[in-house]
Amino acid sequence: MTPTLTRRQVLDLRVHAQQLGRVAGDPADTAVLDLGVQDTGPDGGRWALALRGVDARDGELATLWTLRGAPHLYRRADLPGVVAATAPFSEADAAKRVFDAAKPLRAAGIGTLEALDTVAATMRSVVSAPMVKGEVSGRLTELLPAPYLRHCRPCDATHLFEQPFRLAALRAGLELEPGTSPPVLRPVPGLTPATEVPPHLDVVRGYLRLLGPATPALVAGYLDAPVGDVRARWPQDAVEVTVDGERRWLLAEDAARLAGVPPARGVHLLGPFDLFLQARDRPLLVADPARAKTLWPVLGRPGAVLADGDVAGTWRPRKAGASLVVAVELWAPVAREQVVTAAERLAASRGVALRQLAVTD
Asked: What is the per-residue pLDDT for 56?
């Protein structure tokens, strides 16, 4: 008989798999680093790791443009495997990941994978030492032909399409200097891509392990990949389960330990791009469409208040001198002292004091 999971079981499983609320750990045993920890905004990757008990030291992690062209943190020791794991699965996948850049390339008879390799080779020749993104872009504009370039209205300038620029950077052996804005690219000494994807870095397995149960469509949405490419790489040890009447899949090892997953406990202020919020089954996380629109707007996402594994509201920070103001909007009852503790922890992670916590019920 196909196991049936409740929404509560799914949320508890994800909190447990992602180690949210763990007291202490290190990068080596931190599961979310297998899939990459998105490092967008001041409460990005380092805060996501802190919520999982990790205080990573400089040199242990690397920042790379990978999935969806977003910056992600990875263990530095994993970089050869990350290059292989995050590369497009196919020509169709590459074309989908670069969005509107695929059309002029196709019109010029240039394959998208070929184009990414060309951009990467050109980047590699240009960036021999740390270089600001704008300077790299200017050099590439001089060196690459018209199908690679577009006129950017906001900049009122012609430069490389954004997604090929970002997706080619790792192919060129480049990482981002942590904390730089605008981004500074630099070579990773001696980086040679792995010939095979290490199992723990497999992105399809990673989604199922950390954001399951899932379907091929949900995984494809997270990767910006065609569903067919995800189906072709579907793990053989994935087992079918049912969630709200829908067929989904879990890795067999996760399905086997469902009964032992403890209920999620604690209150956490998740960053806007925390992996828990990156699940593509958003209605399961937040059923109310108006609240979902508030949590996932097109621009300017807030963070989420996670209370006992459930999204219980949103929060926004504002720096006030050497202190922090946090505004919280609650959708469900949460003990105020727990919200205060979570906000103080956020402020401490930024190296400032919590000046004010404004809570709206």
From this structure: 78
